[in-house]
Amino acid sequence: MENKWKLSRRKFLIRAGTVGGIALGVTLVECGPLRRKLGQMANDGKLQSYKNHYAPDIWFEIAPDGTITLHSPKVEMGQGVFTALGQIAAEELETDWKNIRVVHAHSARGPVDPTVTGGSDSVANLYDVVRNLAAQMREMLKNNAAALLNVPASSLRADKGIITGGGKSISYGEVAAKSTHWEIPKDKPKLKEIADFKIIGQPLPRVDLVAKVKGEPLFGIDATMPGMLYGAVARPPFIGAVFKSAKTGKAETMPGVVKVVVAKEFVGVVAATRTQALDAKQALEINWEKPSKTWNQPDIEALIEVGKGVRNVIQIKGDSDKYLGGEGVLTGSFHTPIGAHAQMEPNGALVDAQEKKATIKMSTQVVQLTRGEVAKALSLSDDAVDVQPAYLGGGFGRRLHTPHAKEAAILSKAVGKPVHCFFERSEEFQNSYLRPPTAHLLKAKLGADGTIQALEHNTSSGDVAFGSALLPSFAPAVFGADFGAWRGGMIQYSAIPNVKTIFWRCLLPFATSWWRGLGLLANTFAIESFMDDLARAAKADPLEFRLKHIADDEAGVRLKGVLKAAAEKAGWGKPLAPGRAHGIACCTDVHTPVAQVVEAGMVNGKIKVFKVTCAIDPGLIINPDGVRAQCEGAIHMGMSAALTEEILIVDGKVTPNKLGYYNILLLRDSPEVEVVLLSTGPPRGVGEPPIGPIAAAIGNAVLALTGKRLSRIPLNGKMNSI
Amino acid sequence: MKKNTLYIASLLTGFFGLTAALSPTSPVPKTADPAVSRAAYGKIMTVLRSPRCMNCHPSDDFPRQGDDRHVHLFNVQRGKDDHGLPAMRCNTCHQTENNAYSGVPGAPKWGLAPRSMAWQGLSDGGIGRVMLDRSRNGGKNLAELVRHLTQDSLVLWGWNPGANRALPPLDQPTFAKYVREWADNGAVLPKD
Amino acid sequence: MEIHFELNGAAQTVEAPEQTPLLWIIRDYLGLKGTKFGCGTAMCGACTVHVGDDPVRSCSFAVKFAEGKKITTIEGLAQGDALHPVQQAWIEEVVPQCGYCQPGFMMSAAALLKHIPQPTDEDINNNVANICRCGTYFRIRKAIHRAAALAGQTAPHKI
């Protein structure tokens, strides 16, 4: 069999396995006009590829030893996607779980990652794809087994990687080893019934568990190449600084320095060791072009206000203006600060840039974008650049931007050796793509019966999606409103007759972009805090008040389901220990409704969260323990953002620029988390939805406890006093 | 001459022990000038009240850090031996010298002054009485106290704090001069 | 400067500038990648190793101080094929998500259990102050308690 991908019937791609056996794959994104792709983005709030290609994005290889390797187009950043995809594959393949391996697809083995890894859509989008691919593989194995065993295929049964029938049996590995010809069947294979699932739905331990516990070199920063050197790049030290020129003489004489590279946009150093590179970087005398303005926090806050920037109505139902112009209108104003990703593995890249090809090992959420940027920087074709994604030490959207790969490539080319280059932690703050600050204004009118007649949400934000190199420069003109920034901003109380959401796009002088959940945390904080204010004004129980405003359509029923489940599990309405109160909030994000009940109190004048009860309905659940882990993680990250994290701009500097001072939640602040799983319909997103409600749920608990509404994140910050 | 005076002073302090050290009228050499001692003490206090000294003389179990003397991050605590908790020791992060790469300060014996030598919240006189009280200062007589203040490696670190930390308001030789002047002239303390 | 120390039971000699952080010696000179760079300022704990019995943030530990010391990293926590109780507990509680901070956490937890074999929640809060961005703290706490129980089961019976 040929070692090249061959397009076969029903759009499957087939070739010989890299170590014998067979490989079978499928293309995820078909060719289509750019316009349609952008339209999909606008509709779904999801990223789509606008690259065309004719090789698989996802494929299996079955080796003669029976090992089945799934080459994942999605990168593993802790979200558990490898395990989930592996389980889906193992289920339809009828193989033993222990035979399954999941690896990152390298771009040299076939184009990968047409849709980036992000947006909580990996499992939701790949569930059907992987099932069909696996079922196809299973049928092909059976067909070849039939020939090898000389038994009709219809009498064969596959189970745990063994095909039996007619008193004979053969393993998948043997079939792969002995087959010389593979045929894609004419008919679509039959998929299993959900009731027959043996692997999907099981809380199997994650595939990377043991390797991670042993500290194996999985991550981008762990990658090595023979003869590699270490690079350090000087990055702009304040907002608006642009590299002009550098005196490199002193740095060039420093111990271990191989070369000082003055590129068009930056200056960098290559040295024999990492500390030598860092030392030499300190010795560079750089002339930074200064911006006309030195930015400070009040300047930034003045930019982000409802009523400023470009206005776009993104949701409208009924006529809210009719109700919100006159007397008795209730209003609420909310603010969220700039946030940092602070993923634990700093960004970096190891690049071997040779004359006609380049190899990159790194942590990236955008394999294709990284590849294209490096190819361009090195004047190579995309095909000449192989990106080998590593496990990510956290992603959270930060690694959807990888211009540092290009920098490492330029350094590598300059010295003719592989170079690893990484961000110092202070640069992770100063030279990042921060979560933009937001401001919100909500207006509502209650009827005499205490129901909401009209509700309007104004949400203003810096760029999220529009700050991304994934989108073409004309995207703002096509979309108007930034679908990343308004994520979570639409009002989901479908029983309110008059609703309007207005997005105000405000421009900031520094880079902002994707953060876990994008605008979800900020928008849900505003809407769900205001819902409690309205419930209070209506003298209604916050849970009952919410349920009353949700219609009984499919989305509504699911949202009500999680609200009731979380409330019941948390003991909503039952007395708590003195000095504690419950707060509730909910959201629906990527078709997944989540509700959370927080039990909080005040300790030494600060909010302390004791317990979070979370109910989530992500549709069909592939791995319940994985879903729980994502909920626990999102709750902790959201709690941290809600209570203490805050970036301030001081004299053009992003402050703080150190972990510790950027106040991330610690073990001692960690609450008990209980997760209730509901399951309606097909698989939906999990990684981001549970970060939505937590801030509002905490604020609502404080409201219940103290009668005071905290309208600014961080809730434990100086701007709020209780 | 100075050496002799100091010798006598330390002998006397040693002999009279606690009472002598605590009493503003403790026996002093004839050449002593209480006004000079008092003035020198005022200068000394500007240094002792700087973050470089006060951060590690807390009256509770939590070190302070930074020029703004905030409570040390990560809930770092004194522990039983003033060098941290069993698995969160001072030397988990702080070694015997400053670390240029991390910016983490260090000096030999890095740790908190014992609780008996707590300064935070005390008046100038109160701090002085704690320093002179041999039951609280680790059994130091006046000469030993002078040596601690002028020669101890952990104290000297205050003038080499690294990472752009603020220096004490007096340079080290000037501080040492005032310490000796204070001691030589009777180690006089203000009432408050 | 030539520095000699024991790393995970094996004698090592490295030639390096004396101020080089031990972290980079372990990672770049000796090729053990389990010890992580997180912040470089001794804040996050991802680089935690043991020097003797004590946890040390290796990003802030000049290699010269390692002279003559016994250093243990995550790769040396297991005894041959037998995982350390902390690692075993980490597996049983399925703690890691991205996993980057976990070696540091496990080294901190192992140091805690060396000094306090049956820690309370308060002991854990006070002695393990590493940072995990994925938010696995809830499971880390459970895993430390489980590790204490596992270690207790396997400890030699004392008369």
Question: How would you describe the overall organization of this protein?
Answer:
The complex is a heterotrimer of chains A (722), B (192) and C (159). By secondary structure, chain A is α+β, with helices and mostly antiparallel strands. Helices cover 28% and strands 24% of the residues of chain A. In chain A, the strands form 7 sheets. Chain A has a 7-stranded mixed beta sheet with strand order 12-13-10-20-17-18-19, with helices on both faces. A 6-stranded mixed beta sheet of chain A has the order 1-2-3-4-5-6. The termini of chain A are far apart. The model of chain A is unreliable at 29-53 (pLDDT under 50). Helices cover 40% and strands 4% of the residues of chain B. Chain B has a two-stranded antiparallel sheet with strand order 1-2. Chain B has helices spanning 2-22, 34-48, 51-54, 124-132, 142-151, 153-156, 172-184, and strands at 64-65, 70-71, 84-85, 88-89. Chain C has 159 residues and is α+β, with helices and mostly antiparallel strands. In chain C, 35% of the residues lie in helices and 14% in strands. In chain C, helix 2 (85-92) crosses helix 5 (137-154). Chains in contact: A-B, A-C, B-C. At the A-C interface, helix 5 and helix 17 of A face helix 1, helix 2, helix 3, helix 4 and helix 5 of C.
Strand order of the largest sheet of chain A: 12-13-10-20-17-18-19
Q: What radius of gyration of chain A results from the CA coordinates?
A: 27 Å
Q: Name the structural class of chain A.
A: alpha+beta
- What's the main sheet of chain A like? 7 strands, mixed
**Sheet having the most strands of chain B:** 2 strands, antiparallel
Fraction of residues in helix of chain A: 25-40%
Order of secondary-structure elements of chain B: HHHEEEEHHHH
Principal-axes shape call of chain A: globular
Q: Calculate the mean pLDDT score of chain A and round it.
A: 92
The 3D shape of chain B can be described as globular
